[in-house]
Amino acid sequence: MKINFPLPTDKKRHRYCQNCLSEKVKDIKVKEKTLYQCEDCGKSYDRLIDIDPALTWWVDEKTKEYWHESIGVFIINSDGGILLIERVIFPYGFTIPAGHLEAGEKPLTAATRELEEETGINADNLTLFSEEGVPNDRCRRGADYHKWHLYTYLLTNSQSIIPNRQEGKNPIWLTLEESLKQNFTYPTRFFLEKYGNKLINSALPNLSGRTGN
C-alpha cells in the first residue's frame, strides 16, 4: 500500500485500518482465518497497515510504496520434493517457510529463525539462492513490495514437520510439477515459475536428469 499520511515518530508500533486509517483495529477469527476489524468504520479486512519498528521496512520517497524485507526457504528432500505449508492468515494459499526480517537482523539469521519457528527444523547450512525485489507481493501488514532473501535447504532425514498453527497447517511434499498445480501465495508462485528446477538443483547439485528452466 502507499503511505500518504504522516508516519509516527515515537518509535512505537502503530496499526491502522486500511479504509479509514483509524488505530482502533482488533484481530478477529472467521473460519480459522485472521481478519482485522475497525471499531470506527466497522469494516473488516484480511490486511491492515502495520508500522512496526521491530521490522525492517521503508517507504519509497518517489512512489510512497511501503516496502518490507523478507526471507524464504525452499526445503528440498532427497527425492527432489518441495515442502509446502498451507497458510491460515493472509496471504492465503500454500507457501514455503518465510517471514519478515527483524530490525538489525541478518538475513541468514532470520531465515534460520523462521525455518525453526514454522517447521521445527533446526538448520545451520542454508544456501543463499537469490536476493531481489518482488512487486505486487501483498502481505497482511500492508506492504505490496518486498525485498526477498531466498534460501534453499536439503533435508536428508525423515524429520517430522511441525507447522506453526497460528500461521500454517497441512505440510505436504510435492514435486515441482505437482507444486505448480496448487493455489500459492504470490511470492511462492513467483519464485517457482521464475526459477523452477534451478531451485531444486541448488539444494541437489549432483542430482542427474534435472535442468534449470
TrEMBL record:
<dbReference type="InterPro" id="IPR020476">
    <property type="entry name" value="Nudix_hydrolase"/>
</dbReference>
<protein>
    <submittedName>
        <fullName>NUDIX domain-containing protein</fullName>
    </submittedName>
</protein>
<dbReference type="InterPro" id="IPR020084">
    <property type="entry name" value="NUDIX_hydrolase_CS"/>
</dbReference>
<dbReference type="InterPro" id="IPR015797">
    <property type="entry name" value="NUDIX_hydrolase-like_dom_sf"/>
</dbReference>
<dbReference type="Pfam" id="PF00293">
    <property type="entry name" value="NUDIX"/>
</dbReference>
<dbReference type="GO" id="GO:0016787">
    <property type="term" value="F:hydrolase activity"/>
</dbReference>
<dbReference type="InterPro" id="IPR000086">
    <property type="entry name" value="NUDIX_hydrolase_dom"/>
</dbReference>
<keyword id="KW-0378">Hydrolase</keyword>
<comment type="similarity">
    <text>Belongs to the Nudix hydrolase family.</text>
</comment>
<feature type="domain" description="Nudix hydrolase">
    <location>
        <begin position="66"/>
        <end position="196"/>
    </location>
</feature>
